[in-house]
Structures are given as C-alpha cells and as structure tokens.
Design a protein that fits this description.
mainly alpha, two-stranded antiparallel sheet, 15 helices, about 60% helix
C-alpha cells in the first residue's frame, strides 16, 4: 500500500476541504470523489487534449505540442498559456515564453508562478522582475498571498507588515497556505505576523463550532500561548491577554475543544459533526 510522506493531519485537512471552481457553471471538487461536472467541463473546454500536450512535451516534441495549443480554453485558459510557455521554452523561444509567464504570475502572484517566470528571464532582468513582484505584493488585496510572496523574495519585514495591516482580511479557511506561512514566519522570527495567522486559523474553527478541526485548533492555541509567553508585544493586534480572554468567554461551552487544549482528547477522536457546542 502507498504511504504518503505528508503527515496524517495535513492529509485529513485536504480531504475535508471543498475545492470550488468558479465561472459560468461553478462546481465543487472533493478529494477521492468523482465529479461529473468536472468531466463535462473537460469536454466543453477541450481539456482532454492536455494529455496529448503533456505526452509531446515529455517526448521532447514541443512543436507538435504547440499545434494543440491554438485558441482559447475558456476558464482553463491559464492552463493553456502555461503549457504554451513550456513548449516555447523547450524551443528556446524565451522572448515569447517569458511574457506569457509574467502575465500568469501577475494574475496569481504565487511563488510557483514567480519562479516559473524567473526561469525564462535573462539574468540581467531578474532584479527588475523581483522588484515587480514586490510591487504587486505590496498592493495585493490578499495579505496572506502577499506575505508568502514577500517572504520568498527575502522581505520578511514587509511580509509581516502586510499581515498586521489588515488581519481581518486573512482568510482562515485557507489552511493549505496559512500553516506553511505561519511556519515560515516562525523561522524568520516574525512572531507578530505568526500570531496574526494563527488567530485567523483558530477563530473561524471555533466560530463555526467545527468539531472535526478542534485538534488543529488546539495546536494553534498552544502556539499562540507560546508566543505570548515570550513577552513580545503584538501591536497593532489585540493584546495576547485580551485575545485569550475573548476566546475563553465566547467559546467556554465548547468542551471538546478545551479537552484538546488540556490534553484530554487526541486528534483521532475528533467529532465528525458540524455546528455543535460539543
């Protein structure tokens, strides 16, 4: 049997997550479940041909791949452009592939897309590209995405500042991005930013009484208390004492969560239900 190198808690979080595809005909994906709407979207947008494109690229036949990459792919257009840039890059046509990858990065500001863009940028232009990345991060409306990018390009001070400026805009349901971000902030000793992220993760779990995630919430709570114990101030955030007092007052009846906090319950015994003050 295949055993994942990803820890069980993270695997469980991914299995519990709903992946929503937006557009004219939105639908939801879940790990391990067939989705007829996805199959229909593949057919509607000709995405089934991506298998041929990948095969051509793996066989080092980029010119053949390009013949399958003509015309828009609807809401999968970013995928088409990404594959097109791969094919052009295989042909050494970086002057054509780099602008495509730049546009993809500027739409996503993801670290993945930044590095793909930099792969096709001349060394002499890398500094300009990184400055463009920093500029986009500083004006982006998602502080977590911006902070992740700023950390990657080496500006941990600006990354923390983005998180502290508007902590209410940190989407606590974005577990897959926020946990690695918090860990990176810890590595860079940016405790205020780390606290902002863990508070954003903890609060919605308790507000929704999402009992299945109480084990994770207890870990976030424990790390927040460790940060508080260092004595570091978290301005402009609410103080450690006021935040903890508010959580204890608002969620006093969530006995299952406090059992996790007090070590009387393990992650394996989390409830399967939603919306109860268990």
């Amino acid at each position: 049997m295949f055993e994942s190198i990803i820890d069980a808690g993270t695997v469980q979080a991914f299995r519990e997550t709903e992946y929503r595809v937006h557009g004219d005909e939105p639908f939801t994906l879940r790990v391990g479940e067939n989705c007829s709407a996805l199959a229909a979207a593949h057919k509607r947008h000709r995405v089934e041909c991506s298998a041929y494109i990948t095969a051509y690229l793996e066989a080092d036949r980029p010119t053949d791949a390009l013949t399958w990459l003509q015309g828009p792919w609807g809401h999968m257009e970013d995928t088409r452009q990404s594959l097109e840039s791969d094919a052009l890059g295989r042909l050494g046509r970086y002057s054509e592939s780099a602008p495509i990858r730049r546009r993809l990065f500027e739409r996503s500001i993801s670290v993945f897309d930044l590095h793909r863009w930099l792969e096709h940028v001349p060394e002499s232009s890398r500094h300009e590209a990184l400055e463009r990345a920093r500029e986009l991060a500083l004006c982006h409306d998602d502080p977590a995405a911006a902070a992740t990018l700023l950390l990657d390009i080496g500006d941990d001070e600006a990354a923390e500042a983005m998180l502290l400026a508007e902590p209410a805009r940190i989407r606590g349901d974005n577990y897959g991005a926020l946990v690695p971000l918090a860990q990176a902030l810890k590595t860079h000793q940016r405790s205020r930013g780390e606290a902002a992220v863990y508070r954003a993760l903890l609060t919605p779990i308790l507000n929704r009484a999402y009992a299945r995630a109480y084990g994770h919430a207890a870990h976030y709570w424990a790390r927040l208390r460790e940060i508080a114990a260092t004595g570091i101030g978290v301005l402009p955030l609410e103080s450690h004492e006021d935040f903890e007092s508010a959580i204890r007052s608002r969620h006093a009846r969530k006995t299952a969560f406090w059992a996790h906090v007090n070590g009387k319950r393990s992650d394996h015994t989390d409830e399967d239900g939603h919306g109860s003050d268990a």
